[in-house]
Amino acid sequence: MNGYLGKLLRVDLNQSRLWDEALNEDYARNYVGGSGLAARYLYNILDANTDPLGPENPLFFLTGPLVGTSMTSAGRYSVCARSPLTGIWGEANSGGFFGPELRYAGYDGVLITGKAEQPVWLSIVEGQAALHTAGDLWGSDIYATQTRLREALGDPKVRVACIGLAGENMVKLAGIANDHGRFSARTGLGAVMGSKNLKAIAARGTGKVPLYAPEEFRAVTNQILALYKEDFPAQSLRAYGTAGYVNLSHMLGDLPIRYFQLGEYAPADNLSGVDLAEKYLTRNTACHKCVIACGRETRSPTYNDSKVDGPEYETVGALGSLLMIFDLEAVIHAGHLCNLYGMDIISMGVTIGLACELFERGLLTTADTGGLEIRYGDAETVFRLIELTARCEGFGAVLAEGNAALAERAGVPELSATVNRLEVPMHEPRAYLGMAVTYALSPRGACHMEGDMFSLDLGQSNLEEVSLEPGDRHDNTIEKGRTAARLQAWRNLYNSLTLCQFENPGVRPLLAAINAATGWGLEAEDLMTLGKRIVNIKRLMNFKLGLTKANDRLPDLLLKPLKEGGSAGYVPDIPTLLAGAYAEFGWDPESGRPLGDLHL
Ligand code: SF4
Questions:
Q1: Does one domain contain both 472 and 368?
Q2: From CA 434, how far away is CA 473, in angstroms rounded?
Q3: Does one domain contain both 174 and 277?
Q4: Has residue 71 been placed in a domain?
Q5: What is the pTM of this model?
Q6: Is the pLDDT of residue 597 over 70?
Q7: Phi, psi (5° rounding) for residue 497?
Q8: Residue 197 Cα, ligand 1 centroid: separation in angstroms?
Q9: Is the dihedral of CA 579, 584, 586, 587 positive or negative?
Q10: Which residues line ligand 1 (CB under 6 A)?
């Protein structure tokens, strides 16, 4: 199987049993890898009775066919399971080096079921896997865990994916960390890992990924690499990180402020990536073979933090402007706390944002919060709430259930900022109306990584061969719905190749790399067919788990026009946009069910 190791590691924690299983070649050919391939496997296993925190929920770590090769930025891995936060399809992915190391150790992925009697960790070294007692590793933060497992295996090149306190406590906002502070953050999959008593997976190997045409592959990946030395978005990401977008985002009305209720607020410009780079950046960090190096390592002297991973754009929004905190040092520190405990920053910020709003409206009082006054702009309280959530203590146990649960508890579900119970990220669907389609239809709930209309409509222009071209960001038409659907298919393909979405070499170079790696002989339109098939199986999975067409919606809060800023007065026309998307995906307009050939 060119492009694949052809092997999965199966782990049954109930019986402490480990064995190798051949990768299903037909599945890989039709669903590629990462979350697409995981969805194909788990479609046969998950159903409405699967308890997300029960031993029966399978937790799948999967890479894609380019991971660990000379392809720049091909260093990601996906984690998939039924989400404890949303109850539907859960997926998250992360960069760094863990994905490549898993392949060098001999495996395309690891499929874990059951629950260990006592906390354990899993080592995978040169094709040999073993379970170890976690002992006092249980309770360690994500940094200490990674360091200790490198020491335990006596090799500084060991790569570790692990949970922090939040995952151990089955906080539904818990993610899985790797390579210092990179995260498979979304949909609460750290809680699934915690429910299995699995603290960490440590991988190390020296194997190679078999390629169909190694010379050709090397030539095309060199060509792609050269692109990024000149490319303007890549240079901007290198200089200012993803937070380099903050000022433009603010100007366009894309940056959520005061829990999605304010379109513009001058102090938001204090959160700029340029300021971050000038005052607090200690160095750039990069994933496997990446020359962009968008990662930030920062410091916040006020809080005595010296080596913080981030903040990214999403952190600056979710723990900054959304909560009316306009001090970069406070944002850095809040992000660091989420990292230490292993929590999804977007979900944490949006859940605290709702708590601020409820407190403001008198729907939450100190009697509910254990005496805490929860106000916008109060960084110290945010730090406290993050700690309480990770520990599931006091009012933190309420926040640990997420934004939708908090809104329901307060009797105001209309104030929830979630789609299918996943907290909305830091891109306003009123700023780019195509994002309304992405959020409403994303298989894991509101997600900006399953269709970045903000990138396309800002001018990304090398995807014409798959009929993706920039357009008017406030276009409210059937055609905009179609475009958003195509982009969702494209990004689902990316998430299945497990590629970084900041690497956009264009259709031809990417196609050449896939074909040289796998020998599949694909044409450009095949990429879109694969992407749509991947969206479709995740949608069918969600229908199996209880969703219907009625779940294709946006929260009421985001359908009210903002009064000020670059998005003032705009709201997405959901029926029109979704009609376009349904037509593009070929879904039944009545039931919303996918009708195409799924190769099941
Ligand atoms: S651009 Fe950033 S996230 Fe993407 S591979 Fe490079 S360092 Fe990692």
A1: no
A2: 7
A3: no
A4: yes
A5: 0.97
A6: no
A7: -75, -15
A8: 30
A9: negative
A10: 73, 95, 237, 286-287, 290, 292-295, 500, 502
